[in-house]
Amino acid sequence: MTTWTPEDQTLFSETYSLVLTAGDTDHPGVEVGMVVVAGELYVRAYRGVGSRWYRAARKHGHGTIRVGTVRHDVLLTTDGLEPCAGLDAAFRTKYGSVAEALVASPEARAATIRIDPASAPAP
To answer: What is the spatial distance between Cα 62 and Cα 105, in angstroms, rounded to a whole number?
Structure first.
């Protein structure tokens, strides 16, 4: 598995949200909050597994993310995902009281996605 560069991890940690597009499409994507825990990037659908964009991520398993002007092709992992320890705390730390929708409900926890780079970033 390819991992995020330290520069990408810093960018994700310091940026409020990313734009996720699932599959091979030119649709505008959805803006979502994200956190980095132990070098891995995570997002959650606060509406749960019935969320349209979560279903698209699960169906396709790949897509793109944009953070500012940075764009990455990514792999989207939903099945069999065991979120890492500290994930809820990371959302709370980054987003404060707004994070409760992402960490307090079983629906949001069930709709966790790990985002990995599809290939090694260009040097």
So the answer is: 26
pTM of the entire predicted model: 0.90
Tens digit of each residue's pLDDT (9 = 90 or more) over 86-107: 899 999 999 988 888 777 788 8
* Helix %, strand %, coil % of the chain (to 5): 35, 30, 35
> Helix (H, G, I), strand (E, B), or coil: what is residue 19?
strand
**Residue 20 three-state SS:** strand
Pairing of strands 112-117, 17-22: unpaired
120: Cβ contacts below 8 Å, ≥ 6 apart: 2
* Cα separation, 64 vs 9, whole angstroms: 16
Q: Are 52 and 45 in contact (CB under 8 A)?
A: no
Can you tell me the distance from the alpha carbon of 27 to that of 58, in angstroms, rounded to the nearest whole number?
A: 17
Q: Do 34 and 11 touch, CB atoms closer than 8 A?
A: no
Under 8 Å between Cβ of 40 and 83? no
**Tokens at 67, concatenated:** 């953070």
